[in-house]
Amino acid sequence: MPDLLSFSEIQQQMRVHWADALTKFPEFEVYIPSAPRQEAAIRLLDSIESEFESRLPLSFREAASQWDLSRLELGCFGFATDGDYLARLLQLNAAIPGLEWWGDRDEPARPADLLAIAHGDPFMVLLDM
Questions:
Q1: pLDDT band at 54 (very low <50, low <70, confident <90, very high)
Q2: How much is the CA Rg of the chain, to the nearest whole Å?
Q3: Predicted confidence band at 57 (pLDDT cuts at 50, 70, 90)?
Q4: What is the pTM of this model?
Q5: What local confidence, expressed as pLDDT, does residue 82 receive?
Q6: pLDDT at 24 over 80
Q7: Residue 27 contacts by C-beta under 8 Å, 6 or more apart in sequence?
Q8: Which superkingdom (predicted)?
Q9: How far is Cα 105 from Cα 89, in angstroms, rounded to an integer?
């Protein structure tokens, strides 16, 4: 089985492949994944746990320490593109009548065991807490 590319190899190959597009459209930088500063990742994860009053799964904590979720899109799924992933999570999981992702349930609040972590119209990526 072939080895998987490292994070830096993925970045490098994407920068080479998209060099012309990045020159013309620097906002496309969001499509090239980057690693967060570790202290920023820890602050973000701690803030998410505090805001949602729940512990995040270890697998999500590990992924968020390797990928900068505040500026990440994967295919049609956007985590956040403006640098504020916590604000994006709060927006995705807000109890706004008629817009709740948890549907027509009689529950006024988001199910505590699920957290919407990314959006790709018309789909959501849910994290099992």
A1: very high
A2: 16
A3: very high
A4: 0.76
A5: 80
A6: yes
A7: none
A8: Bacteria
A9: 20
The angle formed by the CA atoms of residues 109, 115 and 97, to the nearest 5 degrees, is 35
DSSP string for residues in the chain: -PPPPPHHHHHHHHHHHTHHHHHH-GGGGGGS--PPPHHHHHHHHHHHHHHHTSPPPHHHHHHHHHS-GGGEEETTEEEESSS-HHHHHHHHT---TTT-TTTT-S-SS--TTEEEEEEETTEEEEEE-
Give the amino acid at 106. D
Q: Are 67 and 36 in contact (CB under 8 A)?
A: yes
Reported as a single tens digit per residue, the pLDDT across 88-127 is 999 999 988 777 888 766 667 788 899 999 998 888 999 9
Neighbouring CB atoms inside 10 A of 41's CB total: 20
108 preceded by a cis bond (ω within 30 of 0): no
* Cβ-based neighbours of 21, under 8 Å, separated by 6 or more: 28
pLDDT category at 48 given cuts 50, 70, 90 is very high
